Amino acid sequence: MWQDAHGCRGFAMTTTESPQTKVDATATAAPPSGHVSERQARQVAEAARETEWRKPSFGKQLFLGRFNVGLIDPWPRPNPEQTKRGEPFLKALEEFVKDIDGAQIERDARIPDEVLTGLAKLGAFGMKIDPEYGGLGLSNLDYCRALMLLGSANPAVSALVSAHQSIGVPQPLKLFGTKEQKEKFLPRLAKGEISAFLLTEADVGSDPARLRTTAMPTAEGDYILNGVKLWATNGTVASLLVVMAQVPKSDGHRGGITAFVVETESEGVTIERRNGFMGLRGLENSVTRFHDVRVPKENLIGKEGQGLKIALTTLNTGRLSLPANCVGAGKWSTAVAREWARNRVQWGRPVGGHEAIARKIAFMAATTYGMESMLELCCMLADDNRNDIRIEAALIKLFGSEMAWVIADDLMQIRGGRGYETAESLAARGERPIGVEQMQRDLRINRIFEGSTEIMHLLIAREAVDKHLAVAGDIIDPDASTGAKTKAGMRAGAFYAAWLPTLAVGRGQVPGGYGSFGSLAKHLRYVERASRKLARSTFYGMTRWQGKLERKQAFLGRIVDIGAELFAMSATCVRAHAERDVHPEGLELADLFCRQARLRVREHFRALWRNTDARDVAVAKRIADGRYAWLEQGVLPVPDSGEWVSTWEVGPSTEKDVRRRIPTA
Ligand SMILES: Cc1cc2nc3c(=O)[nH]c(=O)nc-3n(C[C@H](O)[C@H](O)[C@H](O)COP(=O)(O)OP(=O)(O)OC[C@H]3O[C@@H](n4cnc5c(N)ncnc54)[C@H](O)[C@@H]3O)c2cc1C
């Protein structure tokens, strides 16, 4: 739901590990209004990054050309204690979900109160809250399975539950809250009060440096909140909010973007609007105004200036909920395609028997298997807490949202005209109410929120080149002193002298390498070779463009996409091999997935150096300058009334409050 990035909304080619270039979040936070330069925006993003790597990261190693399969093999196992807690809940949830009328939610653009109170009774709003605060304390794996179930009834239900728990109040408090905050808020949330996360403003989408909502410290130590937040999922029904606001720097105040827990019932909070979208019609998404809202100092999460960092850290595991819905969409699409393609006969055979359709169905099943393998791996790695999964979680968010969209589009094609017809209309004609068009509408946002694809590319690319920036960043940093540059030169010389030779040869070239993986060994050998090639390509890119690499977004995007494919192949092979006794057919799906992934990887590698990127940028600039404006003639002109981006002023609300109060369970 939110955001790009509270993390890297840009790709800052500076390293926070170097004292010379160390970025102070407070120093770089923009003034509450006014111009924000690209450099400032990048610095704010960079300052929000988690810079430390305390645990091993499979993804980070992969980008450095080190395929360390030992980090994911043996395939992790769910913790039996947590499974014991999760299983009965998932059973009860499945029964409950069967009775949710997804079509009604779609029709009414509203999740009925009974659904929300029913979920509260089951404990669904406390899935991720520790039992000591009244929650269920489920594992990430079971939480994602629950979201997938909810999403299969209606994705708006899953979006509500996940916005509440993955980015709303529970997760930041779990990670950064004080004992008092946890004791005060978590039991309420576990019982069914709903929370939301508010960062976005009309002028703050992917770029948090432009944030204008302010929290002014008072003499008593509290804060006074003023501003207008846009697109807050759950904003119309939530009673507790995480709000991001700028605290101005002053005596005794470090200042910067800061996170607060805000009670929606506080004086001065107005829910001015409920927004409507292409899909997720049941979403309770708001425009929320804060006018002189007093927030007690006890409600500050973490420290002043830590807001974006808190948000980004929250997302390390919070990001897993969105791909859970993507995997769910893949499963459902495969089920629909299988039945339909057997039953629909055209040109003398079931449509699934025509090669053009068969290919789509095979892609769907193989890709769903691949996405599920990545997701389950990430969840279990997060649950056993031995690995750093920030890169892997970002990769599955990126890969899952992109692939689920392709799958949905393929399903529409496979269903032909019925794919384009609404479920209601199909039912009215006596056919099965299969809402493919709804699925497409509901899925599309996944490529935009919680980090748009473009921002995810930058965010992951930043992590992929982190080691290079750490050793050599000062060489290309215009602000670094001569001394720092000299030191960096020496550091880089030593690092690259040792590292580059490791990229020349590896186990992937040894016939029989990874032999314990049987028929899938060849794919893992490929991953090992491709990982080294990926690292070499990244290095070539860095030496060729140096500091300008941050602007080569298409190049970086391909580097990241290759990494995503290699991670997906690794997860898929290790899982299929581990589960070969239970699901021997998984080996076939893993093999097909890897073959298809290898074709995509080959194309990405080729496009790194053969592309139209520079020309595209030049033409886009000419388009902006109006050179081809004649091309736009022949259709009605685009509307020229209204703002492109709405503006707001602080002050009391002049709108009717549209909040919806959910009865307590
Ligand atoms: C249904 C819905 C629910 C939402 N829920 C929440 C919520 O609960 N809480 C919340 O705070 N926000 C929420 N959002 C906001 C959401 O996170 C933003 O839409 C998202 O961050 C993108 O911002 P934007 O839409 O303003 O796009 P913009 O930032 O205006 O970007 C426009 C386009 O430019 C690209 N772009 C931007 N910067 C760069 C760059 N540096 N390099 C390359 N490309 C770039 C983007 O990827 C995008 O394609 C929600 C939005 C929607 C639509």
Kindly state the percentage of residues in helix. 40-55%
What strand order characterises the main sheet?
1-4-5-8
The number of helices is 24
Question: How many extended strands?
Answer: 10
Round the mean pLDDT to the nearest integer and report it.
92
Derived from helix and strand composition plus strand pairing, the structural class reads: alpha+beta
Secondary structure blueprint with pairings:
Layout: H1 25-28, H2 38-48, H3 58-63, H4 80-98, H5 102-108, H6 113-122, H7 140-153, H8 155-167, H9 170-176, H10 179-191, E1 195-198, E2 214-217, E3 223-233, E4 240-247, E5 256-263, E6 269-274, E7 285-295, E8 300-301, H11 307-318, H12 321-343, E9 345-346, E10 349-350, H13 355-384, H14 390-415, H15 417-420, H16 423-428, H17 436-443, H18 453-464, H19 466-476, H20 482-499, H21 521-545, H22 553-578, H23 586-609, H24 613-624
Parallel strand pairs: 1-4
Antiparallel strand pairs: 2-3, 3-7, 4-5, 5-8, 6-7, 9-10
